[in-house]
Amino acid sequence: MQGQMMKLPLIISSLLEHAERYHGDTEIVSRTLEGGIHRYTYADAHARSKRLANALCRLGVRNGDRVGTLAWNGYRHMELYYGVSGFGAITHTINPRLFPEQVGWIVNDADDYVLCFDLTFTSLVESIAPHCPGVKYWVAMTDRQHMPAANIPNLLCYEELLAAESAEFIWPRLDEDSAATLCYTSGTTGNPKGVLYSHRSTMLHAFASSLPDALCLSARDVILPVVPMFHVNAWGLPYSAPLVGAKLVFPGAALDGESLFELFENEQVTFSAGVPTVWLSLLQHLRKNATRLSSVQRMIVGGAACPPALMQAFHQEFGIRIQHAWGMTEMSPLGTVNTLKQSHLDLDEEARFAIGVKQGRPPFGIDLKIVDDDGNELPRDGKTSGALLVRGHWVLDSYYRKDACPLLDGWFPTGDVATLDADGFMQITDRSKDVIKSGGEWISSIELENIAMSHAAVAEAAALGIAHPKWDERPLLVVVKKTDREVSREEILAEYPGKVARFCIPDDVVFIDELPHTATGKVSKVQLREQLSAYRWPEAAPSPR
Ligand code: ADP
């Protein structure tokens, strides 16, 4: 017997319709590239998204076509999220921090029909346009007054396109399984791969990520996504904010500590999300100016392991708890969030902190398991580590235009190595390619890095497994000192005894001025390895065991 309830498709346009009807005067605030702050409401955003849909249809964009974006977090980018996906085309967000050749490759692989770009990326577009013949129109996301004088074929002005259209548009009742957005992985090995999200997966992700034990979003929140809209849809916040009716604040291109602080204070931001490096620069700003954030209640950190020292500094010095979350492009991205359970409430500060440094537990909709090399499931004891596999309503099934199935028995292998404890908390110990294999044992590079970064003179650290004649690999620690501090190799190594087993202690420390970072702000171990290719273990290296 069938249930007898309505079946409304889970489609993205319904989010903005809801936000207009029930939160129509709630603000969306953006720092613009033209200079100054732009303010409007969900009702305005909806009207302009409809104008955009009319304009794109007039340009010949059809259901299923890709519309690329090279843009910061801002209101026009938000309009593209809805104005494109709303009528069945696909919003394809591209990471502008990649090399121009990679950007061009991605545009061609996606087969973008139109590409919309922020002014910052005019010269990038100029350089790739001759190599992207499939793009029919290039749209500068600005008004006539600020149009760039650039050598770009079929260049159009975003504001002129919108001004010429009506704000009447009836969003079609799309199949909820149809594609809504496309985002490429950063391709640290080989070419990037496209992940094609559906309307349904995006909607379920928005519901689940808003829950109290996930990001805990509500109509009383002011959300500032620092995580870029070109990186896994800013962790879904442009969808979950209208779902709950929260005010949105977009930082544009100004992601330094001072600019963020100003926006946090002026707009009274309550919730924000970003990678560890962003919170590090905000911390430095707060310390330097001996100031505090007056309205922030929750800050999420993800994308890379957050050094416990950073969490501690925010909590002890500024009373702000940074919450760990984990995910990946293939997971829309949310996999886990670190929120305590009832049984943890009586724990003392130290025990709570030990839980807080883990990546967290999955919301309903995501399932996790760890397995050994033969695919056998490993115990959830908080100690045994293994390859982390996931499945769920917003996890990828196959890559865009690729036939090979990436799944193992219906589970997606994340490439992360992790432990799971009895409460369901997951802790990443490494990327599988970064794990240090020494004499048959696995050493966690993240653990070694966290210990180094707890030293007051260390700004950043990375641990690498370097080939060793006897032990296969041994850990080498690469350290960036704080500008005004001195520290020796011996002082750093003195941090380790008692914190890790003896065989895990790095064999040597190398000091460098700066660590290489990827386009998504993570330390690039591939580049770091290249940089250190001439490194050899010192002759007199102490025996590792
Ligand atoms: P890529 O960097 O390849 O584009 P993503 O941006 O999707 O991939 O990042 C996914 C990876 O980032 C995860 O598999 C994991 O290794 C790492 N990561 C994400 N969040 C965290 C976290 N909170 N702690 C540790 N690692 C994380």
Structure, explained:
28% of the residues lie in helices and 23% in strands. By secondary structure, it is an alpha/beta fold. The chain folds into 3 domains: 13-323, ANL, N-terminal domain (Rossmann fold, 3-Layer(aba) Sandwich), CATH 3.40.50; 343-431, Luciferase, Domain 3 (Luciferase, domain 3); 435-531, ANL, C-terminal domain (GMP Synthetase, Chain A, domain 3). An 8-stranded mixed sheet has the order 2-1-11-10-12-13-14-15, with helices on both faces. It has a 7-stranded mixed sheet with strand order 7-6-5-3-4-8-9, with helices on both faces. The longest helix is centred in the first third of the chain and has 17 residues, at 42-58. The protein is globular. The chain starts with 12 loop residues before the first helix and ends in a 14-residue tail after the last helix. 47% of the residues are buried. The protein binds adenosine-5'-diphosphate (ADP). The site of adenosine-5'-diphosphate has 22 residues, from strand 14, strand 18 and strand 19. Adenosine-5'-diphosphate binds at residues 185-186, 188, 302-305, 324-329, 333, 359, 414-416, 428, 431, 520, 522.
